[in-house]
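User: Here's a chain of 392 residues. Predict its fold as tokens.
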Amino acid sequence: MVCLLIVIYAAFIGLGVPDSLIGSAWPAIHAEMGVPVEAVSMLTLLISGCTVLSSMFSARILNKLGTAKVTAFSTVLTAAALFGFSAASSFVLMVPLAALLGLGAGAIDSGLNNYVALHFKASHMNFLHCFYGVGVTLSPYLMARALNDAGWRSGYRYAFYVQAAIALLLIVSVPLWKKAAENGQADEKSAVNLTLLQMAKRTDVRLVWIIMLVTNAIEYACGVWGSTYLVTEKGFQVKHGALALTVYYAGMSIGRFLSGLLSDKVRTWKRIGIGTAILAPAVVLMLLPLPGAVSVAGLFLIGLGNGSVYPNMIHLTPHNFGKKASQSVMGSQIAFAYIGVMLAPPMVSLLSRLFGIQVYPVLLAALYAVMVTTLKLFIRQLKKQGRYNPDI
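Assistant: Prediction complete.
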């Protein structure tokens, strides 16, 4: 199982690789292609929308084909899309490639999250998302190096090389998943497929949808617009804005790594509480009219605190909703997480056009307030149903 876990971690690096590229590369892309800075929202909207669709239908696909095959095929799709971005001669050609990225990401995210939640410990879930952080941290670093030397297309090409290597590893490792199934480590066939309507009737599911939506909206509002905010409002150079995103994603990776290390001593709900508490001073630093270095520190703390909320909520899914229903609920959770991803960048874009980019930190503060409030309501609902377990 150790070898399989390494493969799963590698797959999550691959899941993270494409996600931070557009944010760090966009200042250079929109300048070269002559499109408005707000056009990035069209790409992120399409990526997220296709990820939502993929996640919504993931339960039936994963139960039929298995996590191994779906993960390998989806990673191949994302690698192909990255190569396409590196060769795209116009913004129009990026549109179908963005759809391809989204379709691949949704199935990977839903399948691997549920598999790890069912068959591994909380520490493994946090380390899994830490490796996602490795992927999203690596990308802006590669892009920053490329912007300094050869341009943003080379940055996408470097990311393609990484993704292609991961895809090859996943293809050759399919027998490991079969061996795990033979040893009783996987039981995808026994899952119950719940419809979206059935889940929408449940208050607890609706609340967890909101939590997932908002925590990911915060993550991607920082990932997509953090660099542009620093360049536009704080006077950063483009390459320094890209490096600042590396700091942000490094904070997210560190938060998830520390959460994994502490999982045997600090219970899951407590780790979620610590993460949300770290977000409070982070938002304050972003709101204060101080030098750009302070904003970078705020982004780091947002990554550190918010980064641990998502994987720990994911880990609790089988406990909160039952193992048989977990794949269906997991798919819907991932879908709403990506609805947050889909809505956050255009929301920042719209508000920036109306009030200026200085409204950006205010939006982050508002999203944080919604997340904390909904989290408290969700815990209250679980207690009412007798399913809240603070010792998990």
